[in-house]
């Protein structure tokens, strides 16, 4: 049996069975009105909209629920336009934009993007941070991360970014600020030679050959994942320049992460991509058998849910107290979304699911767990996306500090934090009193 969808895309039986097994309504894929294409306009380019419309030959409709986003006809190609080539616009689905908005990025935040490639969300995060904070991007696929680096360079957004090939379930480096101060410039002579200099794509031929050789076999690729993450790009102000390798790869003490971990973490996890019509459409050309093998295979889905939980858990582990994390997937199955979040909350008592304030005006529905959100092509006119936000609150952290999920000794840190607060309060009182005396 084949069903006609908006773009006359026949959905094969196997996909319909997959939807059925996962309790998903196929009608979300059979909207008679195809989902538009979305672009984000680089801040400061608002005055160029009319010119861009002429270039792409189509009206840009402002998305009223998401700042800087515009929708256009799904058939319009933007890649040849000057605006795209000059980095004034880049393609990013509005639901993806919502996931980044849910992070509530503030200037100065140190952000970890645990599954970063190909990097549309990374560009938006870097745009929001401007010339403050930092972003650490991780991806397990080297070629995808290299494409991500190209994008960041194209849009001139890489100044405060560093990109590592690494397994996001194991990654444990903290933002560079942990070690600021250690970069005093007073290194022994032999260490001076090994200081990270400004990043350049023109590495010496010998280095390139050595790196290529190390990547030759799958076995060596897997082995390399258990070693130090490979730094494939760092911007001038990402904190890397001027440090030694041991400073960048320094393992932190148990308590460092609670004070100096990331302010925000995005876990846009690997998934079956079944929420993305555009992704499903690709299989019309690649062959429906490939869809079966790559997307619908039950064993693969089971492995994915384990991976998703591990990514979410590790992302949370790297948050500082008071930091927040957004978990998203472009799958609409409960197994990869609500089930993963539920499992995570069971295992991490100090985590708290958070209401996403900005979502009040978003065209999405609640997920099966209150406070989680679901975008689907039918209701949202975006690609399908699940979003959940988690906080590491100070009070809960305090309450659960004796549990094993945090490094031993974390309660000592909490006592220290409380002491700091009390002392700060007393200092404030004292200075107020002396103001009174002075008067
Ligand atoms: C849904 S995509 C991320 C999309 C990206 N956030 C964006 O906005 O363009 C998932 C990514 O996770 C990566 N990935 C899969 N397993 C991973 C792991 N164990 N650690 C880190 N990244 C992983 C994949 O290579 C893929 O690039």
Task: Explain what this protein looks like in three dimensions.
By secondary structure, the chain is of the alpha+beta class. It has 3 domains: 6-33 and 93-395, Vaccinia Virus protein VP39 (Rossmann fold); 34-91, Sun protein, domain 3 (Alpha-Beta Plaits); 399-438. 39% of the residues lie in helices and 16% in strands. It is built from 18 helices and 16 strands. The strands form 3 sheets. Strands 7, 8, 9, 10, 11, 12, 13, 14, 15 and 16 form a 10-stranded mixed beta sheet that branches. Strand 8 (134-139), helix 6 and strand 9 (161-165) form a beta-alpha-beta unit. Helix 4 (94-102) packs across helix 5, helix 12 (277-286) crosses helix 13 and helix 14 crosses helix 15 (338-347). It is globular. Residues 96, 115-121, 138-141, 144, 167-169, 268, 270, 307 line the site of S-adenosylmethionine. S-adenosylmethionine is lined by residues 96, 115-121, 138-141, 144, 167-169, 268, 270, 307. S-adenosyl-L-methionine binds at residues 139, 167, 268.
Radius of gyration: 24 Å
Query: Segments where pLDDT lies below 50 for 5+ residues?
Result: 1-8, 179-184, 403-407, 431-439
Query: Total strand count, please?
Result: 16
Question: How far do the termini sit from each other?
Answer: 87 Å
Query: How many discrete domains?
Result: 3
Instruction: List all distinct small molecules, including ions and cofactors, that are bound in this structure.
Output: S-adenosylmethionine
